[in-house]
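=== RUN LOG ===
request id: a7f3
mode: sequence -> structure
chains: 1
length: 427
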Amino acid sequence: MTRIAAEKTPARHAVSVWRQRDFLLLWGSQTVNETGARISGVAIPLLAASHLDASTFEVSAITALTWLPFLVFSLPAGVAVDRLPNRRLMIFCDLARMILMLSLPAGALFGAATLIQVYAVVTACGILTVFFNVAFRTQLPGIVPDAQLIEGNGHLSMGQSVAKLVGPAAGGVLAGAVGALRTVLADAASFLVSAVLLSLIRTPERHPATTGQAPRPSFTTAIREGLGFVVRHPVLRPLLACSSATNFFFMGMTGLQIVYLVDELGASPSITGAVFSAGMVGGALAGMFAGRISRWIGTARVTWVSLLAAGPFCLPMPFAQSGWGILLFALGLTVVSVSQVLYNTADTSYRQYVCPPELLARTNASVLWVAFGVIPFGALFGGALASAFGIRTALLVCVIGMWGSPVFLLFSPLRTIRNIPIEPHGE
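=== RESULT ===
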């Protein structure tokens, strides 16, 4: 089952995605969802530390449990998403996460909240988030014309950047004003809003399960088909290798940033916040103009160009000094955000173009399993390297690693492809 060329609308004749009702609902659902997740990323650790007297290690375990489900459940999620109506599944995930989040203040209200409950809620929400994300990544090709996937994915990336910018700040402000317990309610509310927005989408799903035509291979066969499509595809395979390498080294750097800014560069909390805000603003702007930038550079070529071009701006980051020298780090972080948004937009769009609809969920799940599965190991690598050789050396290794990640693309067909092919392929 493939998308028919006659259904495609050339970009120059298509209505802007901002004027398409169902895209706005999808964008709103994701942005609210992401913002709530960022709020809880502040509120739940604060809740554990302030109300449950959790140690530093016990609080850090919350982050590990947030990411671990991607490594364990991504592949099963791809099979499930291929066999179930996606939007109903997403709405179920939203409502289930809302109930789980409400259980934390409810438990505290009756004096029954424990650290075990927090771990259980975080883990369960993480599993539901995996299923939601796999299903979400199948939605855009059915809502906008294929020629607008770059623009649509760019705006979705912009929504993520806005959430990363607003969510932690809102979480901190709310936690300070009303307490961590009540702040968790904001996350629960975001899941409810997301579910309502998804329920208002009227575009019929182009999904095998909605027509009764979905093939039903065995579970292991279904997983092998998704993984096999990525591994055998001459472009998706190097894209996955590049994404995994970038995520590994980026997370190695991310785990060191706060310590580097505060301990090495003497940045105050307000300066630290401003540095990270600059990065998020850069990512949001890149998402807003991703369509135009990609068409100018080439919708396929932008994958490796964006990462290579970022290198010279990132290389000075480990050599930043106190005072005005912090601007070197801020500039590098902003460029990293811009390059990642441009890369992720093109990467996701290419996968949506070339993957047959009946394999898209399993292909997305395979990519998440590998590219997100390396994230915890990248964080551990950065910490171990900093402990052994110093934080500046560790940052330098991570920056060089990110700069070198496009090597997988330079030795692939992408090096000679300027634009993503409009016709889908099923290699």
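=== NOTES ===
The two ends are 13 Å apart (CA to CA).
The mean pLDDT is 84.
=== END ===
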